[in-house]
Write a structure and sequence with these properties.
By secondary structure, the protein is of the alpha/beta class. It has twelve helices and seven strands.
């Protein structure tokens, strides 16, 4: 699976677009805002504060959350500069994601973004902000040496650079048969393959950013995490990926999905434990950790806002559809590439029902890690 080519959030602004189904990610950003603000204020008060702040958002996706982050950062810096009677800087904002990302939708919203800046902050503020796209994998270099002052990534670093190697046994039998990710029935070799790949990927991410950031540059990362249980999700009876795998297994039994297709599909996703993430940061050695915290969000985080916006009826029918759609918009490109487009509506209708049944008896929660760091030097 060439992840760089098939991993992207659903583009456009239709019913199954990421732009219209990313309120969970917005909820995560709001939870992380106090630590983001703390890091930005620290940068704003530094003795070597630049005249032009160069910042990058790695894994920006598309939709309203993309430019919300840029707005929040500029707003915090502007307010801090006013408070200490310091001239506000110019801003150069780089939005990074894989080439398949819907950058065109982002660019089409820039005129209204600049107009809002001009209206709320003044024409001088609007002229001091420059936004550009930077397509490419963040598991490698994207910027010149000592270039960036601030790095941010939210809900992106749990995606791996590839599907782990070693998921097929010597006899050619899939080791993770019947699963699409780490599950309770997965052998230890599968968990180790995912964990080893996370260590390799995260090390490469940190090493690349270390070269690109100025000494003393700041970085805030928000990543889906785990408690170290076998399903690499959280201390609950079933992960959301297991439910999706169970749904696909049902379709295999009905002859709607080929069993070999299911057995050969594994998500390029891994949610690290606190210990795993800290160990990589400490081993890589070029960053100083200021804050390392965890928080949880419900699978149906911000559902009330979504129902109001789209006119869903409140109650039972809405939760499953909301959660299923939040997964569809981030996985559909990979699922279509492997199973074909024709089963998608049926798959996610069934998945929606599975989630409804699960949430009637269990709590569904995503665990998250938030890390605030500065580059040494």
């Amino acid at each position: 699976m060439e992840v760089n080519q098939i991993l992207y959030m659903n583009g456009g602004d239709g019913e199954t677009s990421y732009a219209n189904n990313s309120l969970i990610q917005k909820g995560v950003m709001l939870k992380a805002k106090p630590i983001l603000e703390e890091s930005i204020v620290r940068l704003s008060l530094s003795s070597n504060f630049p005249e032009c702040v160069k910042l990058a958002d790695f894994g920006c996706s598309s939709g309203p959350n993309t430019l919300l982050l840029a707005w929040e950062i500029m707003d915090i810096i502007h307010a801090t500069c006013q408070r200490v009677n310091r001239k506000a800087p110019m801003f150069q904002v780089f939005l990074n994601d894989l080439p398949g990302n819907d950058f065109n939708t982002i660019f089409r919203t820039l005129p209204s973004f600049y107009e809002k800046l001009k209206k709320e902050k003044g024409s001088e503020f609007e002229r001091a902000c420059f936004i550009a796209g930077m397509p490419g994998t963040f598991y490698g270099r994207l910027f010149p040496d000592c270039f960036l002052h601030f790095v941010h990534s939210s809900y992106s670093l749990h995606w791996r650079s590839q599907v782990p190697e070693g998921l097929v046994g010597e006899s050619g039998v899939p080791l993770n048969k019947g699963n699409i990710h780490i599950a309770k029935t997965s052998p230890h070799n599968v968990l180790k393959a995912y964990s080893d790949l996370f260590e390799k990927d995260f090390t490469l991410f940190l090493r690349s950013r270390s070269q690109e950031m100025v000494p003393g540059g700041h970085m805030v990362l928000v990543v889906m995490g785990s408690t170290g249980k076998a399903d690499s999700s959280s201390n609950q009876s079933c992960s959301i990926w297991e439910l999706l795998g169970i749904t696909l297994n049902d379709m295999v039994l009905e002859g709607k999905v080929d069993e070999a297709k299911l057995d050969s599909f594994n998500l390029p996703y891994y949610a690290p434990t606190i210990e795993e993430a800290k160990a990589v940061i400490q081993t890589e050695g070029t960053f100083n950790i200021h804050r390392f915290e965890t928080f949880e969000v419900d699978w149906d985080c911000n559902i009330d806002d979504d129902m109001s916006n789209k006119g869903y009826s409140f109650g039972k029918p809405g939760r499953g559809k909301y959660v299923a759609m939040s997964i569809r918009v981030v996985t559909e490109s990979m699922l279509v590439g492997h199973f074909g487009k024709e089963i998608m509506d049926d798959l996610f209708e069934r998945f929606s029902s599975k989630i409804e049944e699960y949430l009637e008896v269990e709590e569904g929660k995503h665990m998250n890690l938030i890390i605030s760091m500065t580059k040494n030097g």
